[in-house]
């Protein structure tokens, strides 16, 4: 859960991932990804009013994050002020003046963060120095060597004056963290094993967060050629991201794999799995015996708590 104030002392005129309080005096805004703990104040009337009444004040983010904002009724009014930037390309932007501070140029590079679709880190370079803001990120061994923006032209590592790092799992109990590929393949194996047991064996994926399960959906779709059932509102969220929407379906009766709306209390109370229904209370077309459901809860937090408790 991000607790960042939004302000970077080297660049006092900008705000990152926070859009309320004293951030309303900034003149350039950056959103690393579309998770709600990084969007505080973004849909407030005060923030919209600030953008509308000050020329040249924009919100910068990746193209996919911009598409998510556009697909959300709460954030759509920001559309005229959203400026999607390309990945891994240094871009010069103008930060308009505020009070006695003059307007100035700032070079920003978006670095893919591997956390959820559209998530990026920001590398800021300007008169305040070189600052890396990671936001939520996932890097595997060897990834950093491949990030051009963090290296000089001769291949040496670029000096960063200030690093703002978001970490949930930087803890000595969590020295091993499974890769996204390993986690998805473990989930696919659990699904395969269960579906092979009979036509009435169904999967319930518990996916309470708004975004972040897309890699799992796509892996399941690829492996089983079956789309994942999600609620209609979640399906519509990906209207502008067809590469993810293709792995999903709003039709509960076409699939054995469901990530539709969830009922956490029943799962936590350990209700007898054999007679539980799916949240959508549907079964695939052609299944005429009582469903038997395997519940899978993809959760990095759950994994790490489990590891620490061992
Ligand atoms: Zn996040
Ligand atoms: Zn369902």
UniProtKB/TrEMBL annotation:
Q: Which GO terms fall under biological process for this protein?
A: double-strand break repair via nonhomologous end joining; interstrand cross-link repair; telomere maintenance
MF GO annotations: 5'-3' DNA exonuclease activity; damaged DNA binding
| Organism of provenance | Penaeus vannamei
Name used for this protein in its record? Metallo-beta-lactamase domain-containing protein
Q: Does the keyword Hydrolase apply?
A: yes
The source's superkingdom equals: Eukaryota
Question: Does the UniProt entry include the keyword Nuclease?
Answer: yes
Swiss-Prot/TrEMBL keywords: Exonuclease, Hydrolase, Nuclease
């Amino acid at each position: 859960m991000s607790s960042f104030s939004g302000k970077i002392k080297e660049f006092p005129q900008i705000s990152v991932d926070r859009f309320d309080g004293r951030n309303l005096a900034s003149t350039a805004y950056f959103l690393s990804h579309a998770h709600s703990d990084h969007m505080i104040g973004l849909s407030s009337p005060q923030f919209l009013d600030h953008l509308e009444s000050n020329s040249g004040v924009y919100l910068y983010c990746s193209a996919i994050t911009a598409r998510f904002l556009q697909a959300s009724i709460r954030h759509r009014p920001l559309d005229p002020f959203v400026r999607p930037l390309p990945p891994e390309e240094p871009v010069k932007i103008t930060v308009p003046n505020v009070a006695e501070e003059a307007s100035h140029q700032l070079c920003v590079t978006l670095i893919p963060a591997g956390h959820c679709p559209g998530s990026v880190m920001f590398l800021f370079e300007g008169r305040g120095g070189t600052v890396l803001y990671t936001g939520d990120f996932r890097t595997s061994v060897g990834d950093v060597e491949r990030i051009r923006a963090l290296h000089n032209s001769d291949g040496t590592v670029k000096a960063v004056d200030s690093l703002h790092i978001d970490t949930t799992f930087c803890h000595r109990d969590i020295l091993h963290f499974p890769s996204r590929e390993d986690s998805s393949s473990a989930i696919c194996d659990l699904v395969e094993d269960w579906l092979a047991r009979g036509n009435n064996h169904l999967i319930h994926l518990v996916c309470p967060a708004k975004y972040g399960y897309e890699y799992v959906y796509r892996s399941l779709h690829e492996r089983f050629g079956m789309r994942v059932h999600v609620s209609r509102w979640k399906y519509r969220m990906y209207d502008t991201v067809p590469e993810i929407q293709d792995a999903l379906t709003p039709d509960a009766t076409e699939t054995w794999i469901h990530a539709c709306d969830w009922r956490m209390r029943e799962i936590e109370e350990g209700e007898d799995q054999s007679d539980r229904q799916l949240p959508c209370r549907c079964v695939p077309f052609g299944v005429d015996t009582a469903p038997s459901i395997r519940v899978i809860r993809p959760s990095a937090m759950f994994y790490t708590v489990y590891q620490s408790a061992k």
